[in-house]
Write a structure and sequence with these properties.
The protein has four helices and 15 strands. It has 266 residues and is of the alpha+beta class. The protein has a single domain, classed as Umud Fragment, subunit A.
Length: 266
């Protein structure tokens, strides 16, 4: 009888051990996913982000469907998918391409990619397609000018800006305080941004300056570039975007192979 009892006790041990092993596996899985999430928050929030270009405002420098890696190192740190962020020690340079939160609260402050034209303290004036910064004509080999007539024949506008329906209401009512001797003076801690596709860019000319706190980072390189209609890359078109990625496997010719791993000046 004692032997039977011993065998019964012994028979229960593997079951308990198996239960402990299962608990350990679950715990290891939880810990693994925890560190994956922590790594994602750290990388996305402080190091790099992946972005896709949804519009042609930066053509021909950046094209619709270009997928880029953006560096946040030294520019901004925050928690992904929240408004919690903190500006860091780096600031944009003149003529550098920058990713930032546009000062458009009615549109949810969308992320834009433009070129930094004016730094704090700069005096900016535009005559037709020519841009002058601090009295010097800016050399802009990257600028795409598809029309002989600039959207703004003169900037800052010579007429009453409050009557210019192209400007946002906030900028139309506030631009005059930054104009001195016919030039737009960039205030401390703010930047003037313009798209390379000058005739097709909704930029600082229309809505004003970008505060330093809203600068996210600068692009590093293009890791993928796909030909597809502009609306595919707009927010909310997840199904169309997924379908576009699937088509690439069927027709690799839709990939702009020569653009892959093209880097940006820093």
């Amino acid at each position: 009888m004692k032997a039977d009892v011993d065998r019964g006790v012994a028979g229960r041990k593997p079951k308990a051990a198996a239960q402990t092993t299962a608990d350990q596996r679950v715990w290891r899985e939880v810990v693994s996913w925890f560190w994956v999430i922590v790594a994602f928050i750290f990388i996305e929030g402080t190091l790099v982000q992946a972005r896709v270009i949804p519009s042609g405002s930066m053509e021909n420098t950046v094209l619709i469907g270009d997928h880029i890696i953006v560096s946040r190192i030294g520019y901004d740190a925050g928690i992904p998918f929240t408004d919690v962020h903190e500006p860091l020690w780096r600031s944009p340079k003149r003529q550098q391409i920058v990713v930032f939160r546009a000062p458009l609260p009615d549109e949810g402050n969308p992320d834009f990619i433009k070129r930094c034209i004016g730094l704090p303290g700069d005096h900016i004036k535009m005559v037709g397609e020519r841009v002058y910064v601090n009295g010097q004509l800016l050399n802009e080999p990257y600028a795409l000018k598809s029309s002989p007539d600039s959207p703004f024949a003169q900037y800052p506008p010579a007429e009453d800006p409050t009557q210019d329906t192209r400007l946002t209401s906030t900028w139309a009512s506030g631009i005059s305080q930054y104009v001195k001797n016919g030039e737009l003076v960039v205030p401390p801690g703010e930047y003037f941004m313009m798209g390379d596709n000058r005739d097709n860019s909704f930029d600082s000319r229309y809505w004003g300056f970008v505060p330093r706190r809203d600068v996210i980072g600068v692009p590093l390189f293009i890791y993928m570039s796909i030909r597809a209609p502009e609306q595919v890359w707009d927010p909310g078109h997840i199904g169309e975007r997924f379908e576009t990625y699937l088509k690439v496997f069927v027709d690799p010719g839709e990939v702009r192979w020569r653009r892959l791993f093209r880097t940006f000046p820093r």
